[in-house]
Design goal:
Helices cover 77% and strands 0% of the residues. By secondary structure, it is mainly alpha-helical.
């Protein structure tokens, strides 16, 4: 996977490589700015990172593979619950191991549900994904001995990271862990989407019939991508469980799936950068508006989304890139 990426950079992809280095630098810069501006509300920023991992996973399977889903909360919630169960029921409180359990939980649920979802197309995929997420939510509600049911799974008490950095109400250690995690996941996904596997996923999205005629295993390729996206979303769920120290049924809700899709459209699908921008913009705007106008904030958020769809159909990142390209052409 790394060899094709390095080879493409040497063969003329240096510009993209430098752009990614710059992009990662921007991500780290914004993380530092967030730490300075919100020193007493780092839990909000950590929550944003957890949601950003969910939206990144959705961008991989929808933006790059073309799989329609409104049930991505299923893999997010599976990761959150398995990480929480590992801590509360099995005594595995190490944050890194909890994130690993979250990735495993998300990947397993994605593998099982992907076999069903990928049998459909378009609207059928949407219905199947919603149904599976709702089923998992009901299972989590009924299996109260493990999940806490409607009361949620409480009592999650993570150990200090590496035995040194204590996870407390200030959230500094958790926030640092979140930033490292999202950067590593982002780098991995950038490499993946530029690899031959990523190119095949894009080819399947554009023309699955031609990809199948060329001998590609369309369903097998999409299932692999779905499992990877499930692992990424599961890590986001585990990170949220570590940060909030509780897991509730809302982590499996349809609302979370719908919001993640809205964030992806807001930022711009198929770019990964758009997923990050959409998640950060939506959650911060939602938090600000709901605090300023608690009775009509949903109307304001809805109006923003309508404006973005009408005037920035490519998303915030897509429109910014298009504007930069137009300005560059005008200078030439």
């Amino acid at each position: 996977m790394f060899k094709p990426f390095i080879g493409s950079a040497a063969a003329g992809g240096t510009k993209w490589f430098l752009r990614d280095v710059f992009g990662i630098g921007v991500i780290l810069s914004f993380a530092c700015v967030g730490f300075v501006l919100f020193p007493n509300n780092l839990s909000l920023l950590t929550r944003i990172v957890g949601i950003a991992l969910l939206v990144l996973s959705l961008d991989l399977i929808t933006g790059h593979c073309g799989v329609a889903t409104l049930g991505q909360s299923a893999v997010f919630g599976a990761g959150a619950y398995l990480a929480g169960i590992a801590a509360v029921r099995w005594g595995i409180n190490d944050p890194l191991l909890m994130i690993a359990f979250g990735a495993i939980g998300g990947a397993i649920v994605a593998a099982l549900s992907g076999v069903i979802i990928l049998r459909g197309h378009g609207l059928t995929q949407l219905v199947l994904s919603i149904a599976i997420a709702q089923m998992l939510q009901q299972i989590a509600n009924k299996a109260s001995a493990y999940t806490g049911g409607s009361d949620g799974l409480a009592g999650i008490d993570p150990l200090p990271i590496f035995g040194l950095f204590v996870i407390n109400l200030w959230g500094r250690a958790t926030y640092a862990l979140a930033i490292v995690l999202v950067v590593l996941v982002f780098i991995f996904l950038r490499i993946l989407t530029r690899s031959p596997f990523g190119m095949l996923c894009r080819g399947i999205k554009d023309d699955p019939v031609r990809a199948r005629a060329m001998g590609a295993s369309v369903r097998g390729t999409l299932l692999k991508a779905y499992v990877i996206s499930g692992a990424v979303a599961g890590m986001g769920g585990a990170l949220t469980a570590i940060s909030t120290q509780v897991v509730g049924l809302d982590s499996l809700s349809f609302q979370l799936s719908a919001q993640s899709l809205v964030m992806l459209v807001l930022g711009g699908a198929g770019t990964l950068y758009g997923a990050l921008i959409g998640a950060v913009s939506f959650v911060l705007f939602e938090d600000f508006v709901s605090a300023a106008n608690p009775f009509h904030w949903l109307t304001i958020v809805g109006a923003l989304l309508v404006a973005v769809v009408l005037f920035a159909p490519k998303g915030l990142y897509g429109e910014a890139v298009a504007l930069a390209d137009r300005m560059k052409r005008d200078r030439l």
